[in-house]
Amino acid sequence: MKKLYSLILAVVAIVAVSSCSKQDFKDKYIDPSKTTSVSCDKLMTGAFMYGRDYTFNAYWRMYTWDNYFGKLAQTIGTSTNSGSMYYINDGYAADRWNNFYKILRQYRIMEDTYAKETEAEQKRDRIFLALTEVFLYDHLSQLVDIFGPVPFSKACYLAITGDMASSLAEYDSDVDLYRMMLTNLDALYTEIGTLADNLTPEATTALPKQDFINGGDLAMWQRYANALLLRLGMHVAVQGTLAAEGKAAASKAAGRLLPTDWENSIKVKSDFDGFNYWENFRDSWKDINATASQGIIDAFQVTGANDPRLAVVYIPNEAGNYFGKGYHETTAEQNEHGTYDQYEDRYYASLNRATFTFNNLFVSPVFSAAEAWFLLAEAIQRGYASGDAETAFKAAIAASIEQYYKENVYSDQSHGGPGAGNEYFKKFEETDIPTTADALAFAANIWNAYGNKLEGIMTQKWAHFGITQPTQAWTDIRRTGYPALNYPTDTGSGVKYANIVNRVKYPADEADHNTANYEANKANVGNDSEDFVLFWANKLL
Q: Which residues contact 406 (CB under 8 A, 6 or more apart)?
């Protein structure tokens, strides 16, 4: 597993991406260990790179974090093997936790650097701080959605203060953190638009070089900030302390810039800047997550006809059948069906390798147009925003179809793969991409197939997230109850988690090293119970 190695001191940014691409990186980004000063543009890139494993579809994230939440959300083929149905390895939780605080430490250094600058320097650098703040809130919200309250407002100042005692930060409530993110994302959307018209020549030159997420396109950053505002607003709008504020945020975001198609979706290419990032992720789907989810197959066949996405996401078995693995089966049935590699013996449908497992150019969705349209459809259907829910829903399905087809059509297997003719490998041509009219027509059939329109919106959104964004799928299930999934009790003896969890417990390292603050916060999450229901969610069982 190739890991990102980091500098430790206040001049921390980035050293390398992988062994084969160190020189590529050095050619593009200055190593701050070789200079006497740091700059906000380089620190911004550092924050982005620290978050890479949970922004890209990276091997570590997919093999550990996504595999776990794929099972909880049932977006991957789920096994009924006792002991592994709902249990999460503490090391996986610790890696996600620590990754966020690497981003936050980098941001704190940016804040400190910016605060010490002259007025002219701040005018140059404010844009880099603002963009990093948007990225930070994306990852903070994911952490809060998984764990609940976390240290934030007083966290990660050690590199600035040098005071070890004060560096052990108390926890902020998840209500306060959500309120802060809703307020600040709203303000950042406007500020980024204003800054776009007032960049200094130095910032104009540096921005496209240092921003590998949106290439310096500030309209895209506005879409990103506003899409996050819409997502987080909808997360808390349905129930809980912030329902009114969530509805207001969703209503405001619905009328502003959002991703509308795959071209202006927020996404990161696996070969960004020639770093060959594909080396680090391809095998994860092949290794553990390649078996189809029966629930997603059902969602793709809800009209009685095969959804256009089915063929680019999955490959049927030799008989042409799409069977998925899941909790609808007993352990004995799953053992009988097996997971054979041989195509002629395979019972379950498997991921299309041209789209996923041998796609060197896979594009990781950070915030897709399909998600934005699904959020709009939900907001309209619930009465939080004006418009037509059916129109937004059809646009979401069309955007999802476009995304998955373009992942397949523009894939590349030049660095190793099964090649055409392999039974697991079906590559499409550009002419195979459904037209917008055809996609919308099929989407209308899906809309009509659901009597409960909210169930239809959320189920199809869940299927769209699939194996690429299972943590978002799990969050939606907890807050809406859709899709209604079967969570059988793990009846094996001595299992740690017999039933589906509602949150993830804090990592053991956090309890060991930030003990006083951890102990003070435990009561806020049911004595750090995996069964505790967060303020915006519903109990799953």
A: 262, 363, 433
For residue 46, which phi and psi values (nearest 5 degrees)?
-60, -45
Question: Tokens standing for 317?
Answer: 């078995």
Q: What tokens appear for 369 in the block? A: 């147009």
Which token pair is 75? 């977006």
Kindly provide the b/e burial profile for residues 147-168, where b requires at least 16 CB atoms within 10 angstroms of the residue's own CB. bbbbbbeebbbbbbeeeeeebb
- The tens digit of pLDDT for each residue in 292-345 reads 999 999 999 999 999 999 999 999 998 999 999 999 999 899 989 986 666 678
SS3 assignment, position 271: coil
Confirm if 227 and 260 have CB atoms less than 8 A apart.
Answer: no
Residue 312 contacts by C-beta under 8 Å, 6 or more apart in sequence? 352, 355, 404, 405, 407, 408, 426, 428
Nearest alpha-carbon partner for 112 in 124, 122, 102: 122
Beta-strand ranges (E) seen in 88-245 are 150-151, 171-172
Q: Is the dihedral of CA 323, 327, 333, 336 positive or negative?
A: positive
